[in-house]
Amino acid sequence: ANQIGKTLTAAVKAIHHALLVDNASVLIVSRSEPQAIKILDDIRWFMKNAHIKFDTVIGDIENRTELQLTNDSKIRCFPPTQGVYAYPATLLICDELGFWEIEGMDQTEYFEKVIISRIQETQDWKNPYFTMGQIFCISSSNAQQGILWSLWNNSDYNQYGYCWLSKEGRTLERYNQLKAQKPSDVFDSVYA
User: Beta strands of 72-120 (E only): which ranges?
Assistant: First the structure.
């Protein structure tokens, strides 16, 4: 569902991984470049507001699309383009996967050729606390189509669904009102 904290969770996961895994390569691929940059901006905001002296964490590289930490970990953000090919990933976050539009490829082809290939080396790296070469996908649903639907139905992956009601303060009464008012495809994508 929308607005329940999916991207916030991804940002926290990226920070946690990058801080605790030396030389980590965290890639965040989002629906568009501005959306990907916003996630990196959120990460910077979280880190600046943490109870950590900021300059002891951030390294030399800090720009709109990349953040380097002093443990040589890097967090990079991208739209779903072929530019992702340039980097391996110890953690790859796919944000709003169900809505990716890729020039010259469909979602499934892009996921199989570009996303999966970024972890082929790193998934064999050993770490006693973290799964390396992990792919973490989040998205609101976009009907029964595309790579999101395919992954949802693939037993090789873990799937978790959260409804609009998951967020504190939302009521079943309001949920049922929205269900009665909205077209089913809109309701299913945004609230269910």
Answer: 74-78, 91-95
Express as a percent the part of the chain with pLDDT over 70: 93
Q: Cα–Cα distance between 131 and 160 in angstroms, integer?
A: 18
Pair 74, 18: CB distance under 8 Å: yes
Give the separation between CA 136 and CA 92, rounded to whole angstroms: 6
Closest CA to 56 of 36, 70, 66, 72: 70
| Whole-number Å distance between alpha carbons of 127 and 40 | 25
SS3 189: helix
Cα separation, 122 vs 19, whole angstroms: 17
Closest alpha carbon to 146 in 192, 112, 182: 112
**pLDDT 10s digits, 94-113:** 999 988 999 889 999 999 99
Number of H helices, E strands in the chain: 6, 6
